[in-house]
Amino acid sequence: MRQRLAQWRESAAESWRTSLQVRVIGSMFVATSVVMLILGLAMISIVTQRLVDSKINTANSEIERARIAVEQQIAATSPNNAAQVRLNSARAALTNRTGVEADAGAPYEPVLMVAHEDTVEVTSPQGFDIPTSLRKFVSEGQVSTQFHEVGRSDGSRYNALIIGSPTSSDIPGLQVYLVLSMENDEETMALIRGLISTAAGIVVVLLIGIAWLLAQQVITPVHSASRIAERLAAGHLRERMSVEGEDEMARLAMSFNTMAESLSKQIQQLQEYGDLQRQFTSDVSHELRTPLTTVRMAADMIAMHADEFDPGTRRATELMTAELDRFEDLLADLLEISRHDAGVADLSESRLDIRLCVKEAWRQVEHLAEEIGVQVNFEGPDEPLHLTADSRRVERVLRNLLANAIDHSEGNPVTVTWAGNEEAVAVTVTDHGVGLREGQEELVFNRFWRADPSRKRHSGGTGLGLAIAQEDIILHGGILDATGTEGVGSQFRVVLPRIPNGKIEHSPLELEAPEPEESEELEPELPAVPDAEASAASEALPAEEGSEQPSAEPAAESSKEPGPGEAS
């Protein structure tokens, strides 16, 4: 029972939270019920008070006539008779004058009593009980009333209004009381309460029905707009709302359709522009490969005889070779990003140890750290952290993050940390350099984005490194994100599932912006990987299709430096 009640409460709370119609009807029900309850109680209170006032007025008029009749009858009887006999005679005369009997539903039942303070000497009818508090007021010469429950001769009891009055007769302490039954009044009140309750229930139901109809007229177009908006978001750009009438809902539908039409045109234009851009990138990349190969062959032949040239020509030869290297890197990145755009990028899956990937990435950027004088520290467990992934893409991502961290560390230490859990393996690269301003955490993964284009770069770069890195991680079903503080440093985190596109609920490492700290000059501690394993993993790395081996990529990048967190 408790479980069902809990389920009902949860269902009601869910409906209240998710349905505007339920909230409108529920609010109308509560408000109407409260108003009807207040009005019903007020009406019942007023009617009850009117009935009681009417009963009291009737009692006051009747008690005066009864007192006069009793005094006349007592005066007409002989004082020599017993008090009980005289009282019974006066009561009989009073009863006969009313023309009804008490037990037959008379409007009142007369009671005569001789009382002194708290002592009752004679009562007619005998044994009738009058409340002591009422007798006390009457004994003091006051006409008083009191509601009290009294009994009949058959043993039944009923509520009644009792009014009492003192008399002026030759019997000291004689008091006359009238007992007015409240049964008819109670039946009237019960009938009124039933009528008010029934009317209130009918009114509440009618108002709820009206509220439901009104809410339905308003909610239906809203539901339609919500459904069509969801279908538009799902790519069904031709969905439109139906326009009926000329009211506010019709104007809403027309405005919605106008907006949908405008959005559809803009989306189609963006899609066309995107397709053209991807096609242009792909065509240019492929068309440039052949002439670039010819130029490279010519440049290599010229470079072979550079020693025979004068200094100016030799310097021009070196610049030409460096720019050709950078051009080849840019072309390779363009080809790679075009493969991602076309959706033809695939994974060459193999079982690997993330520590080997970190070590290989470090081997390829170690010369850059030595050139700039940046200390790189490694932190992580010594045991293997295996996962199934494309080793070439993972190493390219780590190499890119390491090169960026070294390039933007401003000479401060860089820390590489790795960890794993049952679901995933994570690597963070933290530097204490220029950092990231607020809002740049997402921009760093945009193509060709640079935080400070004027800043000098040590490793060169094409501006596509982090964009490709993000696509590589997404291809694995992983996460690549960043955080940082301007002037303090930045941290990039790679989270890869143990198997491609596996579920990741908790990352082994948290993404935390670095805090200012003083660095200590320590020798970098590489992941503890046996040489045999490292050698085997290095030999197993496949060459990237249409580009150089991954180990040669950092060396090929030149002259242009990326902004904070940018791909090199």
Query: According to CATH, what is the topology of the largest domain?
Result: Beta-Lactamase
Q: What is the H/E order?
A: HHHEEHEEEHHHEHEEHEEHHEEHH
Instruction: Give the helix tally.
Output: 13
What's the overall average pLDDT, rounded? 79
At the first level of CATH, the class of the largest domain is Alpha Beta
**Topology, number of strands:** 12
Major sheet summary line: 5 strands, antiparallel
Molecular shape: rod-shaped
Structural class, from secondary structure content?
Answer: alpha+beta
Helices and strands in order, then pairings?
Elements: H1 2-18, H2 20-76, H3 83-98, E1 109-116, E2 119-124, H4 132-139, E3 144-151, E4 157-166, E5 174-181, H5 183-233, H6 248-304, H7 311-342, E6 349-353, H8 354-372, E7 376-379, E8 386-390, H9 391-407, E9 414-420, E10 424-431, H10 440-443, H11 465-475, E11 479-485, E12 489-497, H12 531-540, H13 553-556
Helix pairs in contact: 1-2, 2-3, 2-5, 5-6, 6-7, 7-11, 8-9, 8-12, 9-11
Enzyme class: transferase
Protein name: Sensor histidine kinase MtrB
Catalytic activity: ATP + protein L-histidine = ADP + protein N-phospho-L-histidine
Structural overview:
By secondary structure, this protein is α+β, with helices and mostly antiparallel strands. The protein folds into 3 domains: 19-189, Beta-Lactamase (2-Layer Sandwich); 240-345, Helix Hairpins (Orthogonal Bundle); 350-497, 2-Layer Sandwich (Heat Shock Protein 90). 53% of the residues lie in helices and 15% in strands. It is built from 13 helices and 12 strands. The protein has helices spanning 2-18, 20-76, 83-98, 132-139, 183-233, 248-304, 311-342, 354-372, 391-407, 440-443, 465-475, 531-540, 553-556; strands at 109-116, 119-124, 144-151, 157-166, 174-181, 349-353, 376-379, 386-390, 414-420, 424-431, 479-485, 489-497. Strands 2-1-5-4-3 form a 5-stranded antiparallel beta sheet, with helices on both faces. The chain has a 5-stranded mixed beta sheet with strand order 7-9-10-12-11. Strands 6-8 form a two-stranded antiparallel ribbon. Helix 2 (20-76) packs across helix 3 (83-98) and helix 9 packs antiparallel against helix 11. The chain starts with a helix and ends in a 12-residue tail after the last helix. The model is unreliable at 100-106, 519-523 and 530-568 (pLDDT under 50).
